[in-house]
């Protein structure tokens, strides 16, 4: 009987001691990064990340590929390899995180970065880089003179060399002061966009516009001018007040002006 109690006691002790380290919150380390488990005798692989500056380069433009946000959790990165043409062969190998590259035609490219850490482990990242042209600056068609309160149409027209959809962004200036702005679109490349605008008060206005494609590439600005003279009503306000107060004279003036 005593023997049996001793055996049960031993079994309980062994079971308890195997539970304690976990239940007591002992530091049980499980190597774990982003859902992947690794053998405990291996280090952590590095994580590859990179950005392109400018984010949407033009054809022929030398862009900077920056991998400085890549990291290794338990060591350091010893090499940065770049595959520019997505053929699986790394075309450049650097010890620094930045590389420069230019593409000559406008299209989407998959660029792959492979980083290697001091233990020879790898991290890989592929990003799509869009090489794209700037759109043309818009032609602007509209009146050069108008009346206060009148609604006038300004038509913008531009093409994008890549046939990207475009927006027309406009600014209205009054006597060289910024007055209002907005954006219309998207339109297909080579399609008119029309802005209907009410001018008030009188003054010298300019309507400037640029084309922006769907990748955010902005053209130069175009500008046209429209003058909104003071209306006769405003200009002759004192004269009208005078006439309203002199009813006979008013009748006489109206008779002359209507004849
Ligand atoms: Ca490592
Ligand atoms: Ca390659
Ligand atoms: Ca474009």
3D structure, described in words:
The protein is α+β, with helices and mostly antiparallel strands. The chain folds into two domains: 36-130, Immunoglobulin-like (Sandwich), CATH 2.60.40; 139-228, Immunoglobulin-like, CATH 2.60.40.10. Helices cover 18% and strands 39% of the residues. The chain is built from four helices and 16 strands. The protein has helices at 2-23, 232-235, 237-245, 247-258, and strands spanning 32-33, 36-37, 51-53, 63-66, 77-83, 92-94, 98-101, 108-117, 122-130, 139-141, 151-157, 166-174, 177-187, 193-198, 203-213, 218-228. The strands form five sheets. It has a four-stranded antiparallel beta sheet with strand order 6-5-8-9, with no helix packed on it. Strands 13-12-15-16 form a four-stranded antiparallel beta sheet, with no helix packed on it. Strands 3-4-7 form a three-stranded antiparallel beta sheet, with no helix packed on it. Strand 1 (32-33) and strand 2 form a beta hairpin. The model is unreliable at 9-35 and 233-237 (pLDDT under 50). One calcium ion binds at residues 83-85, 87, 89, 91.
């Amino acid at each position: 009987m005593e023997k049996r109690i001793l055996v049960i006691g031993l079994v309980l002790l062994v079971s308890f001691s195997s539970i304690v380290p976990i239940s007591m919150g002992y530091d049980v380390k499980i190597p774990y990064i982003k859902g992947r488990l690794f053998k405990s005798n291996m280090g952590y692989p590095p994580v590859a990340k990179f950005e392109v500056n400018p984010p949407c380069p033009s054809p022929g433009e030398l862009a900077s590929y920056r991998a400085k946000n890549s990291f290794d959790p338990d060591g350091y990165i010893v090499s940065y390899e770049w595959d520019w043409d997505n053929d699986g062969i790394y075309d450049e190998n650097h010890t620094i995180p930045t590389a420069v590259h230019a593409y000559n035609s406008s299209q989407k490219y998959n660029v792959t970065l492979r980083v290697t850490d001091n233990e020879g482990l790898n991290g890989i990242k592929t990003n799509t880089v869009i090489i794209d042209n700037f759109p043309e600056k818009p032609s602007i068609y509209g009146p050069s003179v108008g009346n206060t309160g009148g609604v006038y149409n300004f038509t913008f027209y531009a093409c994008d060399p890549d046939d990207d959809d475009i927006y027309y962004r406009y600014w209205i200036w009054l006597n060289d002061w910024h007055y209002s702005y907005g954006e219309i679109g998207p339109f297909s490349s080579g399609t008119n966009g029309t802005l209907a605008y009410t001018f008030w008060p009188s003054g010298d206005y300019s309507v400037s516009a640029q084309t922006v494609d769907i990748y955010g590439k902005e053209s130069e600005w175009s500008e046209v001018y429209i003058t909104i003279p003071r209306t006769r009503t405003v200009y002759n306000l004192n004269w009208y007040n005078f006439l309203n107060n002199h009813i006979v004279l008013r009748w006489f003036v109206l008779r002359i002006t209507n004849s």
